[in-house]
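Please, structure for the following, as tokens.
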Amino acid sequence: MTQRASTATGPRMHTDPIAAWHELVENRNSSGLDALLDDDAVFHSPVVHTPQVGKKITAQYLGAALQVFANDSFRYVREIRGERDAVLEFELELDGIHVNGVDMIAWNDAHRITEFKVMLRPLKAVNLIHQKMAAMLQAAR
């Protein structure tokens, strides 16, 4: 795996997009999203009916998620990987509610994420995340 040392402005460059994603999550830093996402990336939200298409909107959702989910209880508890996709199960405690979910991530030959789908449970968690993400995205406008 080819890597470059971390810089003050962003994460190391990875040929493994999942390793790059883990680094962004660990550092709660969205500055590396531009390099990680394909121009035609698609984001599937657990609370928005239609897919969000394009790097810019995908980066906005993922950046907001990094802020909303960013607390010391967040952790990935399972990872299932294929050649060009992965499923990462996560857990966290947010406002007293246990949140369990999965990130389903696909990437292309250039190691850029082409699709990012988030699924959450239980319903209380979905409602809480919906409220917090809406506020975060509205504040970013």
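Residues 64 and 137 are 6 Å apart (CA to CA). The longest helix spans residues 123-140.
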